[in-house]
Write a structure and sequence with these properties.
By secondary structure, the protein is an all-alpha fold. About 80% of the residues lie in helices and about 0% in strands. It is elongated.
Length: about 130
């Protein structure tokens, strides 16, 4: 398993959730929070590219299904990065608060799902390593 910077953090996602539930919506804080999440995703994507994914080559060779999931998740990080950047640009447009909340909620769901999928992949890999000698 490769060591990759985690991004965005659980705290950042919760902060965005809290900001989006406030009324009135403070777009400056939304923009800054999205910027932080975007930066975390960018660092995470660069880390994945640098080491070739969440799993090392030996793990990928041992289980092709894990290798395919690792590749899918790397692609998904790139898509999430684009989605966050798109919404960040929307913050300062004429989009109404309800639509902005809907778009951010959709991206938050994607980010949380992605974090869960990455954690599951790592756990499955570790489970495979532990059980391989049995």
């Amino acid at each position: 398993m490769s060591a990759i910077a985690e991004g965005p953090s659980f705290h950042e996602l919760e902060q965005l959730t809290d900001v989006m539930s406030s009324s009135p919506l403070d777009r400056e804080i939304v923009f800054g929070t999205l910027r932080g999440i975007e930066q975390g995703l960018l660092e995470h994507a660069r880390g994945l590219d640098r080491v070739g994914g969440l799993l090392d080559d030996q793990e990928k060779a041992a289980r092709m299904s894990l290798a395919r999931e690792d590749d899918r998740l790397r692609h998904e990080v790139s898509q999430l990065l684009r989605d966050v950047a798109d919404i960040r640009r929307e913050v300062n447009s004429n989009i109404d608060d309800d639509e902005l909340r809907r778009q951010v909620a959709s991206v938050l769901a994607g980010l949380r799902g992605h974090r869960d999928a990455e954690a599951s992949l790592v756990l499955e890999s570790v489970d495979t390593e532990v059980g391989s000698g049995d």
